[in-house]
Amino acid sequence: MTCMISDLKSGELYSFLFYVVSHSLRSEGIGLQTRTKPVIDSVIHIVTDEQETKTLGIKYTPTPIRNVVFDRYRFQLSGTNIPAQEKLQNDTNRLVIFDDLIPGRLYNISIWTVSGGVYSVPIDRQARLYPESVGEIMAPKITDTEITLTWNVPDGDKDGYEVQYQDHEGNLIKNVTILNRISYNGLRPHHNYTFLVSVLSGYDTSTTIRGRPVSRTFHTLESVPGKVNNFIAVHVKPNMITLQWSLPSSEQNGILTGFVITYFVKGSLFHQYEKFGPSVVEGVIKNLLPGKTYVFEIQAHTKVGPGGKATLEQILPLGAPPLPASNVFPINVGKSSTTAKVQFRKNFFSHSHGPVTGYAVIVAEDDSLDSKQQKLPSWNDVQKYSRWPPYQVSEPFYPFNGTSSVEYIIGTEDCTNAKGYCNGPLKPGTSYKVKVRAFTAPEKFTDTVYSYTFQTETDNTAMLAE
What is residue 216's predicted lDDT score, i.e. its pLDDT? Predict the structure, then answer.
């Protein structure tokens, strides 16, 4: 026979008497005491700390006693031989601590209320302790592009290690390894790398937890620098060039000791060198040959050695010869009524802006007029003037063939039907000045100053005829 009695209080001790009744007669009673099952209505909070890897704390709120009677709480780590702990119902310290546990282990936690030896249905929780840290990180191998890391294996439960670092482009790199070592290559030389190693427990599960990370900074070794950037010519003159370059700090790969520029005429085996300091970004190369194609190669240097070559080809322009001194001009060394002999020397003009390839003699009766233009009048062009302006005697010529000076006679040709330049006769008894023009190219020329004035001989032919 079953009898259901409801609306009882949880955890309360009840006494029952049972009687048999027949025709208004009642038997002696049989007594029974029993206790209802208590309930637990507490909020449970599991406390773990990455600094306290062997300790687990349980915080709880009190179960309200208006609807339940119980005398204590019971806490147990299931599946272990660790003794359970109990707290009285009215204990105001609502923190339970389990010590000397295994770092990184997953524990099953059960909490009951107990009333007179009767247990409630438990609240079950799971919690994983933080794993131990690895301790010191070591680097048994460091090169310019590679670092190998090792660390001690910590106590406790663990499934692997997570290693993080930031590469030279700012990307966060993460790797997981089950071994207590890892190698990284392809690193930037002479660069600081900070590595963080964390122990993983419960990897690839819902209870994965990372231990307190340990960091260590290592520095890769120096290497040769990268290739110089933006190697350009910013100023080009006939016999010198100004070069400019840059090398980003990210490509230096060490402490720069300087830059070396190798230069040579294209196709030549004769190489020359110019050194510049590590902070210099512009340099001048002098004493070059005008009109030649030069190859310039630049390399940055560290103590390890030179970096990659950046190459530049540049044709040096021809320039007009440098202006001679004011006391350099041709001299008159002979004359007749229609001719004049002048002398000039090869060293009147420097070859520093290019080899002088031609000379021309310029004659003027009226030297006040401009004579600096490239195209000067010819002898025939000036015949219409009473006083001849500056004119060019002939096409450019090169008179120095193993000689250092030359004597040139003006006025030796018959220019009656001549086209272009012609060395026609001078006027008798007339004062002239001359100068010499030197060419490195048809449009590149320089003149000496005019000579002293000289006068052709008077024509006495008519007087003798009389």
Answer: 97
